[in-house]
């Protein structure tokens, strides 16, 4: 082979390799590989307790297709995020797998500890689902997907341990899209005063001595690219909010 032609081929192959590696490094829609297990002592749905603080809502959200996560928990930031998870055993597994919501933290052989319902849903048939459950641990591939709650606004759920007017803790339900809620502010609209809340644990935001009066909530939505946006609830929390109460924010956030 002529030296000049050989050099051209080497440069061409190097160029294709650089493009491939660049696409792999920046691919936000690629499947990653791990393993999954399931909660052995739970019912078909998720659990009513968990590190995210969702309570009973965490067991029935997404019709029970939920999971605990290891590194994807991210100190609570990952609570409420949605993932497509599919097993890779060609004898039993469907191509679509199952879409789950992160509601808890856990560690196992891999990234996910699925509800029994979600684990079995990865199977092609009911018989396959039983075979997967018998295996207990399966190789999987997963990727993050947008959460979707059709015709539902983000809901503020006041934690039962809140103590009006001295201590306020709450979580946000029905978060759509693929962005994370990384900060929350409570604002007193009449005085134009806002207070940045702390993440108590999981998806629970809390503050002592909350502002008085009707309260406006602002949420900072962030993604891996560094894009951030503050979103304000359309509806305020009432002046005399109640522990255990739920309040509709009047907004949906569908950022992908």
Automatic annotation (TrEMBL):
GO BP terms in the entry: anatomical structure morphogenesis
Any one GO CC term of the record: extracellular region
Domain (Expansin-like CBD) ranges: 166-249
Keyword Transcription: no
Signal peptide: 1-24
Keyword vocabulary terms for this entry: Signal
Domain Expansin-like EG45: residue ranges: 49-152
Top-level division of the source organism's lineage: Eukaryota
Entries under Gene3D superfamilies matching the protein: Expansin, cellulose-binding-like domain, RlpA-like domain
InterPro entries to which the protein is assigned, alphabetical: Expan_Lol_pI, Expansin/allergen_DPBB_dom, Expansin_CBD, Expansin_CBD_sf, RlpA-like_DPBB, RlpA-like_sf
Family: Belongs to the expansin family.
Protein name, as recorded: Expansin-like B1
Source organism: Daucus carota subsp. sativus
